[in-house]
Amino acid sequence: MKTWPLPALALATAPLFAAYADWQEATPHVGKDPFALPDTQAPPPPAGARPSDEAIRKAVREVMADYPDKPFTASDGTALSGGAYKEFARQFSEAKKPHCMGPDPLKHQPHSIETKSWVIGASGIFALPFWAAAIVRGKCNWTR
Questions:
Q1: Count of Cβ atoms closer than 10 Å to residue 99 Cβ
Q2: 21, 55, 114, 139: which could join 51 in a potential S-S bond, CB 3.0 to 4.6 Å?
Q3: What's the rounded Cα separation, in Å, for the pair 112 and 123?
């Protein structure tokens, strides 16, 4: 089946779709919107109006009265120690792509050749092919 009639049909009917969209926007809304808010709303406050400082203090006192006097503490004291957050930060920094000219550009690119019984590691000038592969594969980052 040839696909050339479909693009031609789409190009021929594009002006009709644009005219239909313009026609829909031009028609006035008939009837009342069923989702409209009732007309008995309070008038909006004047521009620049804000509650007085005493009203703010009163509201803060009322909210603080609802909370207990002593804050929440865990039984062993480790609820907010940040152990999980520190672990996440460490894992996040380890997963970040290193700079290609930085100290460890081959962090996510293997720089050794492994066979069934041999492992041949490459470092120094011999790691240049692996460095080029890391650049090509996007395993290191040129920009910070």
A1: 14
A2: 55
A3: 9
